[in-house]
Design brief:
The structure holds two protein chains of two kinds.
Chain A (H helix, E strand, L loop, with lengths): L4 E3 L2 E5 L4 E6 L6 E7 L5 E8 L4 E4 L2 E6 L4 E6 L8 E7 L11 E6 L1
Parallel strand pairs in A: 2-10
Antiparallel strand pairs in A: 1-3, 3-8, 4-5, 4-9, 6-7, 7-8, 9-10
Chain B lengths: L3 E4 L2 E4 L5 E7 L5 E7 L5 E7 L6 E2 L6 E5 L5 E5 L8 E8 L7 E2 L3 E5 L1
Parallel strand pairs in B: 2-11
Antiparallel strand pairs in B: 1-3, 3-8, 4-5, 4-9, 5-6, 7-8, 9-10, 9-11
The chains are: A mainly beta, B mainly beta.
Chain lengths: 109, 112
């Protein structure tokens, strides 16, 4: 299995605050991906970071990768109510992704 | 709109009935996947197809069959539905450029 393990399981913050979510994995990877799932919807790909990259940005998202610690973090800056969703990390060799339980992020208005 | 289209969106079946979940993508992706998602759990891979004409089992294939009809379409069939197959089913596809999976909006299946 190549799934990541997300931490914490649930996170509640105030609108405007930053949200930090963590992911750990067990085996060597080619890349690590983060996805978002809004309630009742399919997953949406947020960002992919390759194993030779240490940090990547996309809008209000910042992802870091530490391959020596087999961990990644997703930072959402200046959170909005619309960021309320579940977030999943995944690593997949041979493109066969597996997904853990995810992190439930609640952003209070 | 480009993406992954799943039909139907909702379905209620009686135990023992059969049905086929349809999935189509218009992005010329090679790989397609079927997942199920149960409350409090992550997505579990049922079957996948790395390319047209090939299919392989995932983590939870029992009770399901698949067909990769052509490059666009990948269907999931329940031959004899059981209450344990009550779930939300997601289809996804991926191209060669590793920009992540594109997911459909899901099929909510209830087996009574």
């Amino acid at each position: 299995s190549q799934q990541g393990e997300e931490d914490p399981q649930a996170l509640s913050i105030q609108e405007g605050e930053n949200a930090t979510m963590n992911c750990s994995y067990k085996t060597s990877i080619n890349n690590l991906q983060w996805y978002r799932q809004n309630s009742g919807r399919g997953l949406v790909h947020l960002i992919l970071i390759r194993s030779n990259e240490r940090e990547k940005h996309s809008g209000r998202l910042r992802v870091t990768l530490d391959t020596s610690k087999k961990s990644s973090s997703l930072l959402i800056t200046a959170s909005r109510a619309a960021d309320t969703a579940s977030y999943f990390c995944t690593t997949g060799a041979n493109s066969k992704l597996t997904f853990g339980k995810g992190i439930t992020l609640s952003v209070r208005p | 709109n480009a993406g992954v289209t799943q039909t139907p969106k909702f379905q209620v079946l009686k135990t023992g009935q059969s049905m086929t979940l349809q999935c189509a993508q218009d992005m010329n992706h090679n790989s397609m996947y079927w997942y199920r998602q149960d409350p409090g759990m992550g997505l579990r891979l049922i079957y996948y197809s790395a390319s047209e004409g090939t299919t392989d089992k995932g983590e939870v294939p029992n009770g399901y069959n698949v067909s990769r009809l052509n490059k666009r379409e990948f269907s999931l069939r329940l031959e004899s539905a059981a209450p344990s197959q009550t779930s939300v089913y997601f289809c996804a596809s991926e191209g060669r450029n590793l920009y992540g999976y594109t997911f459909g909006s899901g099929t909510r299946l209830t087996v009574v």
